[in-house]
Amino acid sequence: MAQVNFRNATFITSCLTLADRPKENYPEVIFVGPSNVGKSTLINSLTGQKIAFSSKKAGKTQLLNYFLIDKSFYLVDAPGYGFTAYGSKLDKPFAEMMEPYFANNGFLKAVFVLSDVRRGVREEEKSMIAYLKEIGVPAILILTKGDAARQSEIALAKKNADALGVPYLISKKNENPEALRRAVVNAIRGKE
Question: What is the tens place of the pLDDT at every residue in 141-167?
């Protein structure tokens, strides 16, 4: 995978479980985060096209949506989760869908955990990252909506992200997504 053309992105399928994933064995990365964190907007920015549905009504994504990027890997859009702690306390449908996905997916290279920088890194994201570390899945934190945040909010989010010990990026709407593209490619290649 020399150069990856993120604009060469195709929606492949939506599925409820890992067993229903596409049969082509490409590596994959997944984007997860609470409802209304900006996953669809970020995926659209990353691919340079309106491929993921973005809605003013939070929680529209209900299934795992697979996008094939440059016939090299899958970028997976997960449903948003509620506002409780990860694991058994997380909203049950999300936990039932995602725990087997994370624990049994031999194709998964990294989880991009999205967090609204204005709200800070909340317990949901901290618990999610701790869980991923525990099962040995690499996590990268994406602090979204950086363009709408105050400097004090960004500084606090950076401090919290540093404390988690995972790589992180700050995403701003209409910003060149090259840093995020590099992070995705490095994750697919097994680099940090």
Answer: 999 988 888 899 888 888 888 899 999
Q: Which two tokens stand for residue 89?
A: 């306390």
Dig out the tokens for 26 from the structure.
């490409």
Q: Hey, what domains does the chain have and what are their CATH numbers?
A: 10-188 (3.40.50.300)
Residue entry with tokens 């604009």: 7
Helices (H), the chain: 39-47, 92-104, 123-135, 151-164, 178-188
| pLDDT at 26 > cutoff 70 | yes
Q: Is 120 exposed, middle or buried (0-12, 13-18, 19+ CB in 10 A)?
A: middle
Mode of pairing for the β-strands spanning 64-69 and 73-77? antiparallel
Residue whose structure tokens are 């929606």: 11
Helices (H), 7-122: 39-47, 92-104
Find the helix packing angle between 92-104 and 123-135, rounded to 10°. Answer: 30
Q: Provide the residue type at 6 as one letter.
A: F
Contacts of residue 146, defined as CB under 8 A and 6 or more positions apart, other chains included, come to 117, 154, 170, 171, 172, 175
